[in-house]
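Case 618 in the screening queue. Each case pairs one protein sequence with one candidate compound; here the compound is adenosine-5'-triphosphate. For every case the pipeline is the same: read the inputs, emit a complex structure as tokens, and attach any notable structural observations.

Predict complex for case 618.
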Amino acid sequence: MNTITAPDVGTSGNKPRKTGMARLWELALRKKLLVITSCTLSVFSVAISFSPFIAIYSLIRELVTHSADLSGLDPVFMTKLGWLACGGAATAILLNFVALMCSHIAAFTTIYQLKLDFTRHVAALPLGFHSENSTGKLRKIVDDNIEKLEGFIAHQLPDLVGSIAMPVCTLAVLFLFDWRLGLASFIPIILSYLLQMTAFGAKNAQTFLNKYQDSLEEMNNAAVEYVRGIPVIKAFNQTIYSFRRFHQTIKTYGTFCLNYTMEFETYMEVFLLIINHVYLFLIPVIIVLSGGVSDYGTFALASCFYLVFSLSLATPFIKLLYVAQNGRMILNGIERMDTVLNTPPLLETAAPQTVSEYSVCFDRVSFTYHDQKEIAAVQDVSFSARQGAITALVGPSGSGKSTLAHLIPRFYEVSAGAVRIGGVDIRDMSSEYLLSIVSFVFQDVFLFKQTVADNILIGDRHAGRAAAVEAAQAAQCHEFIMRLPDGYDTVIGTKNVHLSGGERQRLVIARAILKNAPIIVLDEATAFADPENERNIQKAFETLMKNKTVLIIAHRLSTVRGADKIVVLDKGRLVEEGTHNALVKAGGRYSRMWDHYSAGQNWSISRKEAPDSPVKPA
Ligand SMILES: Nc1ncnc2c1ncn2[C@@H]1O[C@H](COP(=O)(O)OP(=O)(O)OP(=O)(O)O)[C@@H](O)[C@H]1O
Ligand SMILES: [Mg+2]
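Case 618 output:
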């Protein structure tokens, strides 16, 4: 096997991914120039927003100084102060507007790229990842966690920078006129900072947040499961309370929200009390100092300035509180996103090989699902499926047939052994190439909410409409497609478009026929088809299967009776292999299965056969 290289999983080169605040900054500064411009403008905006206060204070001081003789006022100076007040306010607003514009552009571009990177990464992960991680969890990461970064970059980052600049400017302004009053106003600010640091620096704050996010994720998953399970609930006439998990997750989430609120309630109340009432600290100082001042007029004026100015201090500090709170939430969300980004995608070989012969060989293959560590789904299985022949996999439910089929396109990595195509280990092929040489129809049919034609063309994007119609005819679905409201242009999943299980399966068969790959894997492909359709589909497959490697899984043994080789599986192990006749003659496991199957074919339900039926007539 060739050296295998791990593709980029979102780390910067080979360096491990940053964590915590460093990671948040790394993400926030993806659009560095825009973010720095926004923050700089935000700082200027905060600094300039002080100018109206200073200008108005100076205006009042001029008026008080010349109150005895107003003709002594300098009109040019007074006009300049007026312009400074108006111009300062207007400039601060304008700068803030431009700062927010830059931060919004940076935010939306960043989250767009992040969502794209995340989705690409998730798409490159092995199928095993998707069966272990719920759609609800992934949806929450894309819709909520990544989305929260928008608020951080667009609003909280400029607010944060502004809130840091604010105390510096406040300090300068507060100590500009009277340092004692300045100090009296500054003490509550320091107290608020200390309070915030104590509340959010506490160890249990992080634990709380983790548990909060976990319970939110649980509730999301349970909600998705609940909505998907509604048909079952209705069928069994269960009420919402019977769906205990969903109910329980809502209750758990509610409890956490309550505990979280209770934990930080006192801190919040004291913080708001202090920051909204700075004047309560100022007034006693003004009273004490007023007894000893010489220039009472100037002191009274300065006191008025501080009292008015103190009212504007609350807003930036409250913003800072939200930055701190949201910062923790965002960090937690980023950690969850990084856990997914750190999951390595399928390893790609450094020297990909191609093949010209397409027989499939399982060489001592074992496979264990990640969440079922103690039981191997497939154990030490060796057999080969020849090109130009039909190989059938049979065995009881849960014997590992589908698992084996999923190992061929590398949806899961084998735990031991190797799967080879044309003698080459599938890990030595590029995943794109491997997928291009395997056509499969799996048990779980999935159709996209696209037109019927588009759903078939997934088999070969470059094939035209005519080829899609031809494939549909071969898969016996042309007739029912033509009955749909818009024929091949009908969008699946829209109003009045209902396809039966068999019809959905035949559409997927058309997809596989169109792909026309050299290896065909059919997992219960005709299970839903009625006998007539099954015969017709098989006829279509006959032409398609010529000179190809075909692996068929079927419970209806009549479907696989004519196969060139039948491989019998039981509890993940290969127990027998051979042709139908040879296996029946051998009198082993397959022979017993065939007897049961044949007996089942002649079995019918009748009242006579169930005399002790527990079902009472209505
Ligand atoms: N995604 C999964 N995660 C964990 N275990 C799984 C998963 N899929 C299947 N298994 C387990 O692996 C074993 C083999 O399952 P598999 O689906 O391959 O059986 P099968 O032979 O195809 O059965 P059937 O005839 O019912 O389709 C079973 O015990 C099953 O519970
Ligand atoms: Mg199966």
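Case 618 observations:
- The two ends are 67 Å apart (CA to CA).
- Residues 131, 369, 371-372, 377, 395, 397-403, 443 surround adenosine-5'-triphosphate (ligand 1) (CB under 6 Å).
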